[in-house]
Predict the structure.
Amino acid sequence: MSSLTHTFLLLRQRLVVPALMLQPQSRNYAAKPAAPAATKKKKLGKLGPIMEKKIIPVETDANKLVSYVCGSNYFKTGEDVKLKPDAEYPDWLWTLNTERIVPLDELDPDTKQYWRRLRKMALRRNNQLSKLKKF
C-alpha cells in the first residue's frame, strides 16, 4: 500500500471508531405491527379470495307481483313502479315482436336492421371459417 492510502486508513480509524463508541448500543428496528382485530379471514382460492354469494330475497306475495314491477327500484329507499292499465301505455308497445327472431328473408332490404343482421351473419361465418384453417 502506498503511504497516502495508509495515512487515510489510520485517520479513518481514529475518527470513526471513537464516534461509534459514543453512540448508544441499542438497535432501532421498525416496530412490530399491531395484531389485527379478530376479523374473519376469507378463504383463498386459486385466483384470490373467494367471494361469498349474496342472497337476494324473492317476492312471493301474489298481489304485489300482479300490481308492481318487482325489482325496478334500485335505490335503498322508495318502492317499485306500479303497473298501469293497458290503455295508458302506447300502442306500439303491444306490437313488439317477443315470440321469435324474424328471419333475414322476411326483412326489408332497405332497412338498417336488415344490413346489420347481414353484417353480423357474415362476421360469424368468417369467424367459423377462420377456425377451420390449419395455420
About this structure: The helical segments are 3-22, 62-67, 112-132. The CA atoms of residues 57 and 71 lie 10 Å apart.
